Amino acid sequence: MRVDMRKGSPVAAVLRFSLPLMLGNIFQLFYNLADAAVVGRYVSSAALAAVGAVGPVNSLLVGFAMGLTNGFAIPVAERFGAGDLQAVRKTFGNALTLTLGLSAALTAVSLALSRPLLRLIDTPQAILEDANTYAVILYCSIVFMMLYNMMAAMLRALGDSRSPLIFLILSSVINVLLDLFFVLVLHWTIAGVAVASAIGNAVSVVLCAVLIYRVHPELHVRKADLVPDAKVCRSLLSMGLPMALQLSVTAVGSMILQSAVNRFGEFAVAAVTAGSRVENIVNVTMSALGVSLSTFTAQNRGAKLYNRILYSVRRIFLLDLAISLLASLFLWFCGEAVCSIFLKDFAEQILPLCETYLRTLACFYWALAVLFVFRNFLQGLGYGYTSVLAGAAELVGRVLVAFVLAGRFGFSAVCLAGPMAWMLADVPLLCIYFQKRRRLKRLAAETESK
């Protein structure tokens, strides 16, 4: 089912489109939560810390891939909004070629750098081997992750956010069943959960490909569409690379911060790992609204419906602020209890650190709402460079905490890294938003007068 974002109530269109995204994000998180719960409950807290130690390194490479493929969808959404289906097919074909080529390169780079990067961020020796095993298996499946995210992003660009949700549900169920089978029956420990995640991603790719073949003729590429076209590739990379760099720069900051967390020992690593899982859960709604706003903006920009764009960003921002307040209350009062799900041993030492981490975040969730709305809005308008600026600001915040505050104020300072990054990223985004809003108003007035 497609949502035509060029018609009807703008807010209703964004909400209808975002609901499957929210559920899809939950099931995407379910991959990671299943890994953490199975490892933490049925292996050990040290194994859970190993999974957490891989997180920032994994985010650097995987974040680049996801940002790139999600950025590829914006030109497709704009051309679909303009009604140029031939350009949609050509753009998708070039995106497929770029995705396959870049996935091969990223796999080679990530495998070569896996252990050196884990050492670089001071991963404790006790968990280094488990962390490297988990990372290597995940990196071998980068091609599946990239292809799925690219295909799902293209489906969403056409207004179909429900099908990727269905595929994620199926692959998540497979992932959980395989987690339990590999760990409890075959005793593969941490390697088993990584293999289960890889298989789940591969299943999602197959399902997306079958749907495109059967339901979406505008994405039926020919051989000529797969041949790289300089103009098309430039349009794809002009959006994909900034988004990829933004996520990569943010991940570099997380790697630097992880090195600071690692210095406080295994309990701190496990606490931040468990706390981050809970944080990701409450981020689902705000993140989905942001992505939906990006697709809405791109489609309506292609159709030159500028008044709809201006109206929607104001309403979605107010909605996201309200959601951020509810998220803050959840983190403050329920976060520690949810963290306990992921812990088997040493809970008395780890849970107080989880509580400190989550309650610190809760005080600043309004800043994350600003970040999600205006970063995605500006990306939908085609201003990909704003992602890089926001990512650089986030990097500064995390580096400041890791190198200046953590040594002086301890673990409490580490908890401020996220909020510091959000607030610094908000500054350039808001400045650019108010500048571009004036231009949108002029375009809206010119369109209305014709």
UniProtKB/TrEMBL annotation:
A molecular function (GO) term: antiporter activity
Keywords noted in UniProt: Cell membrane, Membrane, Transmembrane, Transmembrane helix, Transport
Signal peptide: none
Membrane topology: Multi-pass membrane protein
Keyword Transcription: no
Keyword Membrane: yes
Chief location bin: membrane
CC per GO annotation: plasma membrane
TM region(s), chain numbering: 12-34, 46-74, 95-113, 133-153, 165-188, 194-215, 318-344, 356-374, 381-405, 411-434
Matches recorded under CDD domains: MATE_yoeA_like (cd13138)
Localization: Cell membrane
PANTHER family attached to this UniProt entry: MULTIDRUG RESISTANCE PROTEIN YPNP-RELATED
Protein name: MATE family efflux transporter
